[in-house]
Amino acid sequence: MTADSKRRQRHTRRRHTVTAVALGLALSACDKTDPVLEQGKVVWDGTCKVCHLNGMAGAPKIGDTFVWKNRIAQGTDVLVSHALNGFEGNQGTMPARGGNPGLTDAEVAAAVQYMVSQSE
Ligand code: HEC
Predict the structure, then answer these.
(1) Same domain, yes or no, for 64 and 107?
(2) Pair (73, 24) in one structural domain
(3) Residue 12: predicted pLDDT
(4) β-strand 93-94 against 87-88: which pairing, if any?
(5) What is the mean pLDDT for each group of 10 consecutive residues in the chain (120 residues)?
(6) Are residues 15 and 63 in the same domain?
(7) In ligand 1, which atom is closest to the CA atom of 43?
(8) Is 94 in the pocket of ligand 1 (CB under 6 A)?
(9) Assessment of whether the complete model's pTM goes beyond 0.85
(10) How far apart, in whole angstroms, are the C-alpha atoms of residue 43 and residue 11?
(11) Alpha-carbon gap, residue 104 to 80, rounded angstroms
(12) Do both 19 and 40 map to the same domain?
């Protein structure tokens, strides 16, 4: 083996380690073991993200523990009911099912759970 190919091999190994660490972090961050949260993330990405990622139209931003604290304190049932039926608050209007009538109750509830899990 030439010195050059050895160097290349070392380099490749290091890159794999970095990838594995990044993947591990990504997996632990979104808790792949809970199927409800996994489904919730898919629904959230498809319907809720447009407002809840950056707080568009007054939506509470995902991951902003400060704005979510009092909302979460209402309990999951209230949050899910507001997400299903729509909700007019001080910040703006949460449309029923995020404006996507094709979503089932379970899908909306999973999306709420996902968003809460990222915002506690
Ligand atoms: C068109 C923008 C928009 C979309 C899309 C949207 N939301 Fe919202 N959502 C809002 C706004 C605005 C509020 C805050 C209303 C207020 O408190 O004034 C809100 C609030 C909420 C709340 C907090 C309710 C409470 O009682 O405090 C939950 C839970 C929620 N949304 C879930 C969802 C879910 C789940 C989806 C996707 C299925 C979704 N939202 C999609 C705009 C949106």
Answers:
(1) yes
(2) no
(3) 55
(4) antiparallel
(5) 60 58 53 84 98 96 97 97 97 98 98 97
(6) no
(7) 38
(8) yes
(9) no
(10) 39
(11) 12
(12) no
Do residues 24 and 50 both lie within one domain?
no
- Angle, to 10 degrees, between the axis of helix 35-43 and the axis of helix 105-117? 100
Q: Is 86 in the pocket of ligand 1 (CB under 6 A)?
A: no
How many whole angstroms from 29 Cα to the centroid of ligand 1?
22
Q: Which residues contact 98 (CB under 8 A, 6 or more apart)?
A: 47, 48, 51, 83, 108, 111
- Distance of alpha carbon 70 from alpha carbon 54, whole angstroms: 19
Count of Cβ atoms closer than 10 Å to residue 95 Cβ: 15
Tell me the two tokens of residue 89.
């608050």
pLDDT of residue 33: 75
- Reduced to 3 states (helix: H, G, I; strand: E, B; else coil), residue 53 is coil
Residues 43 and 96 in one domain: yes
Q: Residue 22: which domain range?
A: 1-30
Q: How far apart are CA 31 and CA 81, in angstroms?
A: 24
Beta bridge partners of 88: 93
Taking the C-alpha atoms of residue 68 and residue 46, their distance in angstroms, rounded to an integer, is 21
